[in-house]
User: What shape does this take?
Amino acid sequence: MKKIVAILAITVSFTALHAQEKTENVGDQYNKWSVDLGGGFNKPQRPFTSNSYYTDRISPFTVDLGVRYMLNNKFGLKADVGYNSLTEQKNSSLNFDSKYYRADLQAVANLGRIMNFETWTKTFGLLGHAGFGVGRLDNSDLNTKDWVGNLMAGLTGQIRLTDRIALTGDITTIANAYQDRTFDGNGATNNRGFSGLLFNGTVGLNVYLGKHEKHADWVVISNNADVAALENQVSDLTAKVKTISEQKPTIVEKQVNAPAPAEKDLIKNMINDKYFSVYFDFNKSTPAETSTAALDVVLTYLKNNPSASVDLIGYADQVGGQSQYNDKLSLARANNVKTILEKAGIASSRINVVAQGADMSIAKESEEARRLARRVTFKVK
Assistant: This one.
C-alpha cells in the first residue's frame, strides 16, 4: 500500500511540476529586451535633381541600431537609429556625397508566432515593423542640412543560432515628408508631402538580453484552456491519491505485499482512464524524463498482477501531415515503451503494441495540446 501511494504521489509531483513549467510562459518567464544591429545597402529612389544624378542599384552602405522591448510574445516596441551613405554611381553620375541620419519609434509584430511557425520550425522567425520618426539629409559639399519626417515599414527574417543570438535579414522602405532637398543635395523638391523614397537592405544580429532561457521571439504561450484541463487532471489525480492514502490497510498474512482488491481496481481504472501516460518530445520516440513515474506505476501493477496484460497505444501529433510517417512514429514510441517493460521483467506475451498514428482529436494550433498528443497510453486487461 505505502509503496503504491508513494509512486502515485511522485507521479502527481512530476505532473504538477510539468504543468507549472508549461504555464510559466503565460507570465513573464521569458526575456523581453533585445539589441538589434544590422548593416548593408540602400537604394534611394527619389528625388534627384535630374537624370544626371543617381546611385548604384545596390549602394553601400547602411547601418541600423535598435533596442526592442516585447510586450508579449507577439507584439512589442522598437526605438532605433540609422545611417545611410548616399554617393553617385561611379563613372556614370555626377558627383555627390550625402548622408542620411534618422531616429524612429516602431511597433513590432512577431509574425512567426502570429502565423504559428512553431508547427513546422523552431529555427526560423519573421518580424514585421512599422513606425515614424525624424531624419536629416546632409551634404557637406553644399553645406545643406535638410530636416525631414519619415514613415517606415519592413520585414525582418530570423534564423535562431542560440537562445541568445539570432541572425537577421531585413528589408525596409522609408518615405520622407517635408524633404526640401533632393538626395544629391543639388536641387529643391518644392514638395512638402512624402516626396522622398528610400529602400534599405541589411544583414545583422538580434542579441537577446535577460536572465531567462528564451526570448519572447521564440516563446509559444500555451492555450489557457489546455493548461486548465491539465491542471484539473492533476487535481483529480491528487484527490485519488489522497483517497488511497486514507484507506485502512488490509493485512492478510499470505498477501502482505499485494494490494487489496478494491485498491487494485482503482489503480487499474486510473491506468485505463489515461491518468498515467508516457510523453515524448517533438519528433522523438524516446520517452521524456518526466514519464518515469508513470512507467513505474504501470510496471508495479503488472508485477503485482501476473495474469494481467496490457495494450500500449502509441500516438503522434498532427504536425507534418504525413499519415504514413505519423503511423511509423507512433509505432516506434509504443515499441520503445514495450522494450522498457520487457527489460524490467514483463514477458513480451503480456504486451500488445497498437499504433494509432496522429491524434486527430487534439487541437493542432496549441503547443500544449500537441505535447499531450505525443504519447503512449495503457489499456490493462
Summary: The chain has seven helices and twelve strands. Residues 2-24+221-380 form a domain with the 60s Ribosomal Protein L30; Chain: A; fold (CATH 3.30.1330.60).
